[in-house]
Each structure stands twice: as C-alpha cells, then as structure tokens.
Amino acid sequence: MMKQLKTEIVAVGTELLLGQISNTNAQWLSQQLALFGVNVYHHTVVGDNLQRVKAIFNQAHARSDVIIVTGGLGPTDDDLTREAFQAMSGMDIVEHAPSMDKITAFFTKRGTNMTPNNRKQARVFSGASVLENHAGMAPGMIVTHEERIWVFLPGVPREMKHLASTSVFPYLQNLTGEKQVIKSMILKFIGIGESQLEHELYDLIQNQSNPTLAPLAQESGVVIRLTARHNSETEANSLLEQTKAQVEDRLGEYLFGVDEQTIEQQIIDLLKSSGKTIAAAESLTGGMFTDKLVSVSGASAACKGSIVCYDTDVKRNVLGISEEVLVEDGTVSEVCAEQMAEKVSGLLGSSYGISFTGVAGPMSIEDQQPGTVFVSIYDHMNKRSETKGYHLHGDRNSVRHRATIKGLEFLFNYLKSTLE
C-alpha cells in the first residue's frame, strides 16, 4: 500500500501559456489533495504540441508516482493528450461504448447533427478505469503504467472538479490508507524585512519539522507559511496554533493578520470598534490609499472619504493650505503634510486625517528627489500630529504603491498604540 504519493499536475493547453486563462485547475487540485496527505511536487503547463506533450509526460513519468493531467481530451485536432500518452506508453486506445452512447444522445436530444470528431471524446485507453462525466462529454480515466498512476481529467474546471471529487480523491485516499491532513496558515507581517524576520526566527526555521516554516516576501509585506501534517485535522490546527504563538512571542509587534486578513481590513475593524473615522488627503498617491480602505466591506462606517489634491491649487483652494507653507516650506514637506492631514480631518469631520505628499518621479520637485515622501496623521481628539518621511525606491508607480503601503503600516501602528 502506497503511503506517500509524489504527485505532479500537468495542464495541457496553449491558452494557458498565452495567458488567456489562468491555471486555476492546478491551484484547486493542490489545495484539495493536501487534505488527503498527497504531496504535489510539480506543476507543469505545456502547449498543444504532440512532441512537447510527450516529452513532458516522459519527464513526469520519471519523477512522480501520480500524474494528474488536465485538458486535451476534447474533440478537436489540438486535443492531443491521448495521442501523446499513447506515443509514450504504447497503450491501445478504444472507443468506450457508454460514453459514445451518451454523446450521441446529447446531440439527438438537441436535434443537431453530431460531427465525426465528437467520437474522439469517447476514446479511452484499454484497461483504464473510466470515470463517468456527469458535467460534460469527455470521460476521465485512471491508468496504471509501469507502476505510475495516470489520471486524465477534462480541462473545463466544472467537469474537472466533479470528476476529481467523486472519483479521483476517493481513489487516491484508498492508496494512501489513513487520511492525512495537511493544513497551512499564513502569518502576515509589515514593517520588517524578510532578512530581519528570518534572523529573528533562525532557530525555529533551522529546527523545523512539523509544522514547517517558510518566509516569503510579497509586495505588501512579508509572510510566513506554516504547514502542519497530521491524521487529525484538530491536531494539525493545534500544531499550527502552537507554532504561531512562538512566532508571535518574538515578532508580534509586526504581525497584522492571518490567512486572508489584510491590513486595510484590520484598520477598518479598529476604527469601527472604537467608533472612530478616517479621511485622507492624497497628493502623489492620487486616491490609492482610500481605494484600499473602501475595498473592505463595511468601510463606509469608518472611512469618510478623501480629497485628491494633486495640484497645488487644490491644496490651496480646497484644503486651505496656507500660502506661507506653500511658498516657504513647499508642497513636498513635513509641514505641508501636517496641514493637509489636519485640514482634511476638519473638512470631512473625521476623527483622524492622513495625508500623502511627495515626489513619485521621474523628475525632482522643489529640489526634492524622486522617492521623497511624507505621510502625516492628525488626531482630532488629541489635537496632535505625527509625521514620517520616507525615501522610497523604484519607478513612479512603485513609489506611489509603496507610499500607500507605508501609510497603511503607519496608520495601523498608530491606531493599535492609541486604541487598543
């Protein structure tokens, strides 16, 4: 009885390589297979070319115990999965009568003529376990060849999921014996770099076994993926919680969320739970910060709105920034940022105001270099401001994006320190 299955998922279809559709089949299969303790080692995508598909199949056969193939089972000339596997394995292909009867009945019921190429969808490998497709035409197949298990599924996600859930997963669970659960948890951090985070957790990472820890850098911060294995889902979750507590003891000040939680969601939750509101004055970010907040369901209870004050006249005539500040300190300055945050709080009647001003690039402004950014928070109740200056790297849009992330980090930490 096979206890550990080294599994590979091969997606066939030129449309995947062209980026016309995303390979969501592989993502879904990997997520589901983890619940059965099945390890997915490789994702491969190959176009509709007989020789290339055959080469990929040979590669998969050499390195994997189970190969799940999605796509290439349709009626057209570019559906080459059967032909490629036959060329590799030498197995005979026969017409599956029940599948052919189903296809014929489909066209009869619709009152349309069946083109000859539709017979192709009923072709299966001799000796295969044929998986009846209740969601479409082409059946799936499970074939054993030279001690490798090959699973062939349609590429249409609805059909693939139906066959995988009803036939493939039970079959694989039978092979693995006792069900093993693989559970993951994503811990999200902001305000700390990947190298520093890895340094702080060095001993945990080096001594990891179950759960495992994997630091990953992302645009909006750093994440750690914890992965636990156990034959009990409850115990797997317990292992994750224990390791999370160890990580939190060391890096809790940077941890802002778990799994699907976002920093903007956390900010909205903090504001709503305390009955506070926020308004923004955005120059270089041009509304990106507010867009992040309002993407959260229920944000209207905490986000008053924003004023995009990209032009100096808008800062002067709408926000009411003083002429003295605009002339003497400039629009890209700590003083201007502070006035922007205070003015927008007053204009929109919010508990807090936050402002963004700076130079996105590519040219300098007011002798300030591209990447120079000021973010200010005004606290209406306490009548005080906090302002931070940043020197951010990257092209114009990267600077704007990073300024937005810095603003979210700044506001989140400020709210945590004053509201919790």
From TrEMBL:
This is Putative competence-damage inducible protein. HAMAP family: CinA_B (MF_00226_B). CDD domains: cinA. Transmembrane segments: none annotated. Residues 8-174 form the MoaB/Mog domain. Gene3D superfamilies: 3.30.70.2860, CinA-like, MoaB/Mog-like domain. SUPFAM superfamilies: CinA-like (SSF142433), Molybdenum cofactor biosynthesis proteins (SSF53218). SMART domains: MoCF_biosynth. InterPro entries: CinA, CinA-like_C, CinA_C, CinA_KH, Competence-induced_CinA, MoaB/Mog-like_dom_sf, MoaB/Mog_dom. The lineage of its organism: Bacteria, Bacillati, Bacillota, Bacilli, Bacillales. Belongs to the CinA family.
